[in-house]
Amino acid sequence: MEKLSNKKLILASSSPRRKELFQVLGVKFKIVPSQIKKEEINRDLSPKDYVRKLSYLKALDVASRTLNAIVVGADTIVVFKNKILGKPQTKKKAIEMLKKLSGKIHLVITGITVIDTATKQTAQDTVTTKVKFGKLDKNLITKYVLTGEPLDKAGAYGIQGKGFLLVESIDGDYFNVVGLPLYKLNRLLKKFGVPLVL
């Protein structure tokens, strides 16, 4: 396999949270946002297949216009009762979503795809974390929504922000809930010879 020293490592995402988590890996990388939109994916797929395909299409989009690089595509969804919850477009929608999740368990699923543009080698995986919300009273929900934080977050919350106040417990990878499961990403990148911190 060609050494990574001759290749660029690219994150096919404009997410500031993924950028911050990627930096934890201690490797040099470049951000090239994918042009793929979630609306283009068939919603009839199972949540895992949906997010896996989306991560693949994101990575492929950037890989198709990049030479000599290792491209990482990722996408994270929130699933409740086998239905994907997107980002609430209004405060009213955010309140409705949080009321629905109150006291319940939901799933956070991330799909990851890594593509070597030179060899066309591809590796994929998904990571699922169970998240349980505490019983949320109306006052807490209203105050949280008024912070504005839920409006650009799938499931209407960000665990790395004030949204941690809503979470009673998690079962699985915390970083997956933030948007990038570092343990699994590390394992995938090792297959491509990416030299990490350890």
The residue-averaged pLDDT reads: 91
The CATH architecture term is: Alpha-Beta Complex
Instruction: Count all strands and give the number.
Output: 7
Helix/strand structural class:
alpha/beta
N- to C-terminal separation?
21 Å
Q: Provide a count of the helices.
A: 6
Rg, please? 17 Å
Strand content: 25-35%
Low-confidence stretches: 1-5
Order of helices and strands: EHEHEEHEEHEHH
- Text of the CATH class: Alpha Beta
Brief overview, please?
With 198 residues, the chain is of the alpha/beta class.
Set down the secondary structure blueprint.
Blueprint: E1 8-11, H1 16-24, E2 30-31, H2 47-63, E3 69-80, E4 83-85, H3 91-101, E5 105-116, E6 122-133, H4 138-146, E7 167-171, H5 174-178, H6 182-190
Parallel strand pairs: 1-2, 1-3
Antiparallel strand pairs: 3-4, 3-5, 5-6, 6-7
Helix pairs in contact: 3-4
Report on the architecture of this protein:
The model is unreliable at 1-5 (pLDDT under 50). α3 (91-101) crosses α4. The protein has 198 residues and is α/β, with parallel strands linked by helices. It is elongated and about 55 Å long. It has helices at 16-24, 47-63, 91-101, 138-146, 174-178, 182-190, and strands spanning 8-11, 30-31, 69-80, 83-85, 105-116, 122-133, 167-171. The protein has a single domain (4-190), classed as Maf protein, CATH 3.90.950. Strands 1, 2, 3, 4, 5, 6 and 7 form a 7-stranded mixed β-sheet that branches. Helix content is 30%, strand content 25%.
